[in-house]
Amino acid sequence: MQKQIEDITLILGNIIDPIIKNETWVCDKNNYEWYYTFGRLLQPTSILEIGVSRGYGSIAMGFGCENPPTHFFFVDNEIDGIPITTAIQNINQIFPNAIVETLIADSQIIESLPSHFIADVSHVDGCHTFGGVQKELALVYPCTRYYIIVDDTHGEYIANGVKTFVSTHNDIQIIHEITESLTGQMILKKSQPKKRN
């Protein structure tokens, strides 16, 4: 897989918080550019994200879509001090016709997500531990139609957590491992049930 845009900050524009605009994960041109690429590849109409912060990952993915996503589902515990309303405001500014639904919760405590949180693509970027990523995968697994993106897989413990989860589910497989990005990502694909004649 090759990156499809060199500098997404040019189109993210004024939604980038001035406080963080010089942070490596924003300005090094090797992070959110990949999420734009994932949008180009996967073309989701809806996105579910755990670990939302300001919503930049979902927004970058949405920019990569031919038709912007119409629905965003955000799950965050606001532990980093950023209210989930920040992501909502950013989405509303960029994709004014999209519906945004949120759940403020700790992904490591809740047993499941609301039954209507169903999305084409899910993005797991919350708890960065071996067990934490498996718990988040278990949450998004029944809510995801096609693909799951896991962030920060340069961390071996996270990558191993993903592989452990996949090994216990015969209808999901790792189809891409992005090693050249800033933090590393894995893309998982769910098998679609065969239609009966």
What this model shows, in words?
There is one protein chain. With 197 residues, this protein is α/β, with parallel strands linked by helices. The protein has one domain (9-190): Vaccinia Virus protein VP39 (Rossmann fold). 31% of the residues lie in helices and 22% in strands. It has helices spanning 9-12, 24-27, 32-42, 56-64, 84-94, 130-140, 156-167, and strands at 46-50, 71-76, 99-104, 119-124, 144-151, 172-178, 185-190. The protein has a seven-stranded mixed beta sheet with strand order 3-2-1-4-5-7-6, with helices on both faces. Strand 4, helix 6 (130-140) and strand 5 (144-151) form a beta-alpha-beta unit. It starts with 8 loop residues before the first helix and ends in a 7-residue tail after the last strand. The mean pLDDT is 92.
Strand order of the largest sheet: 3-2-1-4-5-7-6
| Tally of helical runs | 7
Q: Radius of gyration in whole Å, from Cα?
A: 16 Å
Main sheet attributes: strand count, strand direction, barrel closure: 7 strands, mixed
Number of self-contained structural domains: 1
CATH architecture: 3-Layer(aba) Sandwich
